[in-house]
Amino acid sequence: DIESDLELPDAAEVVRRLDDRSLVALSRPGARGSRYTTAVELGKGELDELLERCGRSAPGRRVVQFLADVGRPATLPEVLEAADCSDGVVRRLVRLEVLRRFTQLDRLPLDRHLMRRDEAEAIVLRPDQEAAVRRLVEAVDGGRYAPFLLAGMTGSGKTEVYLRVVEHALEAGRGSILLVPEIALVPALARTVRDRFGDRLAILHSGLGRAERHQEWERVASGEARVVLGPRSAIFAPVRDLAFVVVDEEQDSSYKQESTPRYHGRDLALVRARDGSATALLVSATPSLEARRNVERQRLAPLALTERVGQGRLPEGILVDLKAEPAPRRPGEVVFSQRLLTEIDRSLGRDQQIILLRNRRGYAPILLCRACGHDHSCDDCGLPRTLHQRPHRLVCHYCGSSLAVPQRCPSCDGEALEPVGTGTERVEERFGEIFPDVAVDLLDRDAVRRMGGTSAILERFARGETRVLIGTQMVSKGHHFPGVALTAVLHADSYLSFPDFRAVERTYSLLTQLAGRAGRGEQAGRVVIQTFHPDHYAIRAALEHDDAAFAEQEMRFRRIFHYPPFTRMTQVLLRDSKRERVEEEARRLAARLAADLDDRQVRTSGPAPAPFERLQGKWRYQLLLRGRDAAEIRHALRRALAHGVRSEVVVDVDPHQLL
User: Which residues contact 116 (CB under 8 A, 6 or more apart)?
Assistant: First the structure.
């Protein structure tokens, strides 16, 4: 909320506090793995004066003229080749102070972080795109803070709009930051931006090596790179003369950092644009309710795209009621409805590509003993470990602990161990049983680590080497594959059952984004949604591409129950190794807050055990505070916490998950 008086961390302080895995902490000079090379630049003085110092030396004059023409420092090998001279010529010019010699970081290629692709055709903007570009260019030229929301259906050309504005800013010698929610979205967009802007692009994310991060950060700091692309932490990049900040897929919860320092990349992007008198653009096919509300309150200027690019049409929606499907032979088996199998057969017969979504990685969420009910729960978290086939381990996704998969139940020594539930690995296995001759790839966090990175998986799919892409939500956002005619959600209810007021919004966004991957080429697209709740308004709206209907229903729910965006929420989470102590401290804190906030338009929920009551060896209790005045909540919390709390306390302003 750009208008609030929240005390957002100063950017410099955030940089100092970022953990050792961050791109900032690892960007200091001398980062391990860096390589250095010798470079030269022109000394002080006018060009005629420098040429005169060279005397009659033709090679020396060629060196000076080359550096003057390129207008930047150059590496020693580059100079020697361009001027056709020896190193001795350069040494003499350094002694004459015609040149200055120094050492700089050797440039590391980042091609492995970019997707390969064929040369793109020139794009002609539609009238609605031209209107959006014109508004944004005017704002950039105005030199004042100007925030916008660009909304438009999937495949409507939102990326091209903001790249045109980045190009305009570059022509004026100014910089831009492009944020995407996940590293998986970087390779394809980075290739597009690199093809258009060349070495003026810098990529910043945790998937780069230490030396690569250091190099890119220094290129930005020096002004060599003026366009920065990356996930939320890229907002801290030291871009010179910042003119334009883009937050693509602004509704995505990945922009919220769930560890200290807790910040939201989207909100911090608005703050940075405001402080730098830059233009900010939030982009989404399914805008967050916060963004929609800020448009209503005239805090964001709306821009809209109303058509798909080229011949692309929104996909046909196909709803499958899983209650009407035959029960699986065993609990938790993958359900491919007869309608979905028919659609897959049809697509494969037409040589079309398919994307299948199962938003849970691993093979099965639980390995259950049918004899005694033992579920191999994590000792530190109290939650069942997920069964992974590659590697063959039981893994806790919350603390990372793992066990070898037992042959017999460790509780009753029985042999009745059975996987319950479905993850991406199990979907892949079942699909291979039904369609054994079809090339399939997985795209989830585990597969990315195993198979050479995100770009390698996406490249194979883009080239048509794989016909089917199975994955988590990583497959649903930002990808453009014209060959995809069918997308399917195997279980659309995954998010709906979460104990979180944002669950419905996330479900709608996920379904809409996945549907948008189909029908981007000449072939008509189809999306199959399998669900046990066929009449839920979020599923109906996604199926019928009715964004207004969803927003109306969800806004009504949020308004009635005083949830954001109509109030500000703060989560107070207490953690302790002793359950009795954390419960007692939570009740004391709640009592202090209740006395302080009496009749101050602030609602308090709890204290109560967090939905995941125990994680990483700590018992967890939480309080939720909701009110229109964020400052009042903050001041009350400070007064209550000043009395001291024996348990660990985490305060999360505007939380995006309450688990």
Answer: 191, 459
Instruction: Give just the sign of the alpha carbon dihedral 367, 372, 374, 375.
Output: positive
Say how far apart CA 24 and CA 213 lie, in whole Å.
8
Q: Which helix (H) or strand (E) holds 408?
A: none
Concatenating the DSSP letter of every residue in 489-536 gives: ES-TTTTTTSSSTTHHHHHHHHHHHHHTTSS-SSSPPEEEEEES-TT-
Sequence-ordered list of residues with C-beta below 8 angstroms from that of 204, at least 6 positions apart, any chain: 23, 213, 216, 217, 220, 228, 229, 230, 233, 234, 237
CA-CA-CA-CA torsion for 192, 194, 198, 201, nearest 10 degrees?
130
Whose CA is closest to 582, among 609, 615, 549, 554? 609
pLDDT tens, position by position, 238-277: 998 999 999 999 998 889 988 888 889 999 999 999 999 9
| Confidence tier at 116 by pLDDT (50, 70, 90) | low
Pick from 606, 573, 613: which is nearest to 587 by CA? 606
Q: Which two tokens stand for residue 53?
A: 């110092």
Residue 56 tokens read as: 């009659």
Distance CA 527, CA 617 (A): 42
Residue 108 DSSP symbol: P
The pTM of this model reads 0.80
Residue 483 pLDDT > 50, yes or no?
Answer: yes
Q: Using alpha carbons only, how large is the chain's radius of gyration in Å? A: 28
Q: How far apart are CA 434 and CA 364, in angstroms?
A: 19
Among 333, 533, 328, 490, smallest CA distance to 421 is for 333
Predicted confidence at residue 46, as pLDDT, reads 87
Cis peptide leading into residue 655 (ω within 30°):
no
DSSP 8-state code for residue 222: H
For residue 15, what pLDDT is reported? 40
CB distance 315 to 525 below 8 Å: yes
CA distance 487 to 476: 9
Q: How far apart are CA 498 and CA 609, in angstroms?
A: 15
**Tokens (6 digits) for 81:** 């080749």
Residue count (the chain): 659
CA distances to 120, 355, 428, 469 from 433, in Å: 38, 17, 9, 16
Instruction: Quote the pLDDT of residue 343.
Output: 93
> Which residue bears the tokens 């015609």?
98
Segments of 128-222 assigned E as strands: 146-152, 175-179, 201-203
**Beta-strand pair 568-576/468-471:** unpaired
Mean pLDDT score across all residues of the chain: 83
